[in-house]
Amino acid sequence: MRVLAFSIDLPGHLDWGGYLKTARELTRRGHDVMWVSGPMVKAQVRAAGVAFTPTSITGWRHALPPIRPDLSPQQREMERMRRAIIVWLDAASVLAAVQALEEVADAFRPDVIMTEPFAAAGAILAERRGLPLVVVGRPAQPPKAPNPRRLPNPAIPFIERLLEQAGMEGRYWDLDRGHPRSPHLHLDFFCREWYADLKAVEPQTHFCGGAPAPPQSLALPPDARPLLLVTLGSTFANDENFFRIAAESALLSVARPLLVTGQRTPHILASLRQAPPGPAIIRDWISYDKLFPRLAGAVHHGGVATTHAALVHGVPQVVVPHAGDQYPQAARVTQAGVGYGIRPRDFTIENAPLILADILWDPEFQENARRLAAIMQGLGGPAAAADAVEMLL
Hints:
By secondary structure, the chain is an alpha/beta fold. The chain contains 14 helices and 15 strands.
């Protein structure tokens, strides 16, 4: 089987709880897997043992003009919502990515296309070529019943414009929810219990959970206090105040903070290192497989990779969402009893120490986290995902 796996060129979008690991498992089984994305992620993909073809454009707009300072708070919020859509659904950018993918597909001749929820060009390529599509990172949901009182998804006009310009019907799209949808297979590396807020999930969804990596060495300075991760991922890390509040709050909660700033904000890293908050450990990147078995808690933005790693390792967490699907992730953390979802404006030096003390020292959070981890670990992880992909042909 020849599998073309596509993602936008951000490190977190290789993961989704098990996307790259599934590609590695398919490769290990003898399938011909080709990962296509921007050069920024080439080293990570090849380090996983997966073949890689670079493309100059993936459809993601890495640079958007600054928000105008004269906008009112309401206008700024509306502009943030608009930018959260155009960053991955700008028709010109996505169609350029489709053209680049077409050239790869002409040479590679895939049997199956795998894509992730924000890699729109992958869904268009699969429809254009009449190939089975695997959507990684989100369950498939049934169509919503018509409701004149419900506001339409703001992404709909952007998707419709994209499909019109691509000459596609949109057979691989869920307009109601504004993301690619496959009738063939969705791979989700959480569990059905995690999505207690969803009334129904369609049968092509395969919940795969995950499992902790085997123990690995990790050099950290010795300290008796429990270790707490603080991160905003790779896209939203330009918030030094968040890191400092979280670090000070961790210290007040008798924990040792590990701040991971990401590699796209070197000025934040430099500033924190110049005036570090107490004995905090400060890194621009760290291996989650090595780190999470050592953690007592995590504070983060609600990205899928970090949320998943915390869940599968049974680590209580606090999610401070910044955009998009981070908000439902935050709500699910609270709903599952494995931590708290907190609005950014409520994550203050007055509130945060109490919140962190709860997840670090309250046995109920730890028990709930261990229970959910056991469920996820029983679902098979990337091996089960690879089985499901093999069943397509």
